[in-house]
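U., I forgot to send this yesterday:
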Amino acid sequence: MLNRLASSISSLLDARADGHALPAGLYTRSDVFEADMDVFFRRHWICVGLECDVPEPGDAAVIDIGKTSLILLRDDDGEIRVVHNVCRHRGSRLLNPGKTIVSKLVCPYHTWTYELSGELSYAPHMGKSFDKECHSLKPVNFKSISGLIYVCLADNPPKDIARLELAMTERLAPYDVPNSKVAFETDVIEHGNWKLTMENNRECYHCSANHPELCVSFVDLDFGFDPETLSPEDRAQAGEHLALYEERILQWTADGYPSAAIEQLVDCETNFRTQRLIISGAGESQTPDATAASSKLLGTMTRKDLGDMHLWGHNSWNHFMGDHAIVAIVIPISPDKTLVRTKWLVHKDAVEGVHYDLEKLTNVWVATTDQDAELVARSHAGVEDPAYVPGPYSPFSETNLDKFATWYIDRMRAHGY
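Result:
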């Protein structure tokens, strides 16, 4: 049965034309969704949360990924742990979804009790021969990369995450993400396939027509344009913008803030891109007027003119600015439903109403996420239509979508599909 499914999916992979969107079945079919969950959300590194989700010993957060449930927690020694949310007795869930505070992990079924390190400390009526040391909670492979928590559910995680870790450890150090706090968090269910969610985020071809709030501070030309379709005035403006990028990247780097683009998008296992982007307008932050939302800057930052340290992976996107950060995590729910969990981070000592206004802090990305949810739903409805034929990507504005589709096909084939 598995071989037949793999063969069926393989024919869809073979049908994808270079430079074009994916065949409909790769977005809509249940068997493809299950394969995606196995390949991309079990065998690859995925971002699931933040150290500051669990700031104090005893803080715990449950994260569900398909049928897998994880507990992200901080133990009694202040160390981050990630364990499976599965009791070693008869499999009961230990904690309910969401965040909580615990002194120990106690199974509600038969009161098997685990230390925050995962060690089984109490299992009543199991007899003298029972070995508690053999029944600790199952740990999960994870890395904290400057406060971003990545997990891999496979036994042998991809090793090429090392390049992401090296790049972001240096680039995120001044923001001190572990010592930030979550000022606001939203969960939005997009009615579309997770790949449509990621594709939508990887291009700004649609931005000027759909994201008026974001375009105050975000420059859509940063992700490609066709110079032949621009007026002479717009072409000159685009040239000036590219020249400004070269100047800013050199200056930022000279000042000790690495900024040039680093890409690992094809011929790899761990997919990511990072670059320091120019913020338009007032140039400080992604807010309604492009000025900083918080007067207390992140970490050791002393400047508001360092742009947007952008990072994306295959299930996340992030924007780190002097005053605050946006972290978005994508978790598939079904072939046509995707959770987008967005967190707004500020300095741990920043006080709402004193250092920042919550409406100003969240306005741009609340609006952008809602707008994107509508676009993804429209896209999914279109790929379900019998009239759908995969169209060509723009060679100027959608090159990263072409790379994502190529990477997706390659990784599926690498895992036997």
